[in-house]
Amino acid sequence: MDDSCQRAPLFTFGVIADIQYADMDDGLNFSQTRRRYYRSSLELLRKARESWSHSAPRPKFIIQLGDIIDGFNKDRGASSRAVEKVLEEFSLSPIEVHHVWGNHEFYNFTRSELLRSKLNSSVLADTSLSGTRAGGDIYAYSFTPFPGFTFVVLDAYDVSLLGVDEDSVQYHGALNWIKQHNNNEDLNSPPVSFDDLEQRFSKFNGGFSKAQLDWLESVLTSADKKREKVTIVSHLPVHPFSTTPVCLAWNFDELLSIIQAHNCVVCFIAGHDHDGGYCLDKRTGIHHLTLEGVIETPPDSNAFGTVSVYDDKMVLKGVGRIPDIDIFFP
Ligand SMILES: Nc1ncnc2c1ncn2[C@@H]1O[C@H](COP(=O)(O)OP(=O)(O)O)[C@@H](O)[C@H]1O
């Protein structure tokens, strides 16, 4: 019997992905197959924020899974204004927000600008029970909002062509990597290969550096020892069955082998693929959720969710395009 109606959750948290706000008329995605509701996305966030503010219990925090504003803001000189508008909406509720960075953050700002901005929520690691940061320019951190439950925010563009100087060592390292897989003149155009997974090597994706993977390994080793449950969040998905291959992180396989080796990991939550996706990794029992994007959600629907955490499971209650999912712990 489902007893979640009778049991109070230990705590709850909100999730929302790919708001991609811009003060402009609706448009279409690159392949002209999906409508993008640039202005309406802020209105859908307002409805999500109101729902979270009025819910009991109120979520302890919200995870914003990246692409908070659209790249079109850059050409219009509207990047800072657009971020301010979205953050103002979030700030009308007292719930703290953990911001993940996606490709559209880097279309609007450089990495160093982002590190100095309000979109850098790694300061919240310090106020958590035992938060840690990956360090350097890597935007990855962990926080423990409740004893026994750790959350890890990953930086899926730690190795990428986006947000870094084209003269930098980082840029050339990423260029070398992508060019081993993508011969197209326009690196935003995914490579055509008999192996569908190769499509991930496009400029709008990125990867995790060795330093970040080593840091993640140490966080998970410590969580294993403390018998904690770990939820990892990232803009890019890492399980091929949870998304279309064109949206995967460049080294999704390395990330997967790390999390598969640690009993503490229960769930991986991503955005980027606006159609969403879900799979249960049967070998490990880890749930991989890719959340439907707000930007491609019609104004009369929505795309956000609230996750209730119990000692043996988490329950995602989705609104609009996001389905309900029971996340039983492995
Ligand atoms: N198949 C493609 N070929 C060439 N450029 C592409 C392709 N798909 C996307 N792009 C470009 O890559 C960038 C990111 O694509 P976009 O659809 O905005 O990403 P997202 O899904 O994160 O919103 C845009 O500049 C877009 O024009």
UniProtKB/TrEMBL annotation:
Residues 12-275 form the Calcineurin-like phosphoesterase domain. Pfam families: Metallophos. Coiled coil: none annotated. One of its GO terms (molecular function) is CDP-glycerol diphosphatase activity. Its EC number is 3.6.1.13, 3.6.1.16, 3.6.1.53. Gene3D superfamilies: 3.60.21.10. Its cofactor is Mg(2+). Keywords: Hydrolase, Metal-binding, Zinc. CDD domains: MPP_Nbla03831. Belongs to the ADPRibase-Mn family. Monomer. This is Manganese-dependent ADP-ribose/CDP-alcohol diphosphatase. It comes from Hippocampus comes.
